[in-house]
Write a structure and sequence with these properties.
Blueprint (H helix, E strand, L loop, with lengths): L1 H22 L2 E5 L11 H12 L2 H4 L2 E5 L6 H9 L7 E4 L2 H6 L1 E3 L10 E7 L3 H4 L5 H4 L3 E5 L3 H8 L3 E5 L2 H9 L6 E4 L3 H7 L5 E3 L3 E4 L4 E5 L4 H17 L1 H8 L6 H4 L3 E4 L22
Parallel strand pairs: 1-2, 6-7, 10-12
Antiparallel strand pairs: 3-11, 4-11, 5-8, 5-9, 5-10
Protein name: Solute-binding protein family 3/N-terminal domain-containing protein
Keywords: Signal
Length: about 290
């Protein structure tokens, strides 16, 4: 009888734990796209889902939820810092951001974000054909979003920058000739050209601007448990090959071939944190 009681009690306890876990998954709130044509978040959400699932057996279930508001980078980072409706943001790193927030220092795009192709108006291809150096490029103005870390990097390399208030508005500014080109990560530009077919933009065919620009998951400094869970899941995904499988599913590994025949304009990025992983790390792709 005593044995039967223990069996029943143990079974009920396990059921209770299981039911509790199912009823109370860890809620992880992330940023929303900045417009209807903004597809940049898809990979990062899929990757976040993957890495959190790696620790599900150990740390329990989770539920991803998008914040409904469309917001600038600066606003999303401020809300993250204040634990106000956002638990995780993926964004390009700077020393300043790493001091204010808690970075998981694993470059999610293996350095691809810092390989920038130039989105230009189709009629301007001839203007850029003679550009062979940074000095040549300095005669042209770049368009960027307000508060983007790239703005400081470009200006530190004596490149003129025109800032727009929001992501979607930058395409209209390019069309209206407010600036000469819109530098886009090689992982971003082809989707964006597809989404903006009617504007007759093209990827300038022979140049690439290159600088170190790791993009990390960031959480609030008060949310160290989530940071540890994400980091643990990322390392598991690296080890078991599922990170690379997702990277390949988005065809990001094939983009390196797009760079091989291009003239590389190297920029210095003086705003990286001292703890940024070395370019010799296997976490980075080799571009040259």
């Amino acid at each position: 009888m005593k044995h039967l009681f223990l069996v029943v009690f143990t079974s009920l306890s396990l059921c209770s734990i299981s039911i509790a876990a199912e009823l109370s998954p860890q809620l992880v709130r992330h940023i929303a796209p900045q417009g209807e044509k903004d597809l940049r978040n898809r990979y990062f959400i899929d990757l976040l889902d993957l890495v959190l699932s790696k620790t599900e057996q150990e740390l329990g279930p989770f539920r991803l939820e998008s914040n409904k508001a469309k917001m600038s980078q600066n606003r999303s980072l401020l809300q993250l810092q204040n634990n106000d409706g956002i638990d995780v943001v993926w964004t390009m790193s700077t020393a300043e951001r790493e001091e204010a927030l808690l970075p998981i220092r694993i470059p999610l795009l293996k350095g691809l974000l810092g390989q920038r192709l130039l989105m230009i108006r189709q009629q301007d291809i001839g203007r850029f054909a003679k550009v062979e150096s940074l000095q040549d490029l300095q005669a042209f103005s770049a368009g960027q979003g307000s508060g983007w870390p790239d703005n400081k990097i470009l200006r530190a390399n004596n490149i003129g920058v025109i800032e727009g208030m929001n992501y979607e508005g930058l395409f209209g500014m390019l069309q209206r000739q407010r600036f000469d080109y819109f530098p886009r990560g090689i992982n971003e530009i082809f989707d964006e050209l597809e989404q903006h077919k009617s504007e007759n933009f093209v990827a300038e065919p022979h140049l690439v601007i290159s600088y170190r620009a790791p993009i990390y998951y960031f959480v609030s400094k008060q949310n160290r448990e989530l940071a540890a869970r994400i980091e643990q899941g990322l390392w598991i995904a690296f080890s078991d090959g599922s990170f690379d499988a997702l990277f390949s599913r988005y065809q990001y590994d094939n983009l390196v071939n797009e760079l091989r025949s291009r003239t590389v304009i190297k920029l210095n990025n003086p705003y990286l944190h001292a703890s940024t992983p070395s370019e010799q790390s296997p976490l980075w792709l080799k571009f040259n």
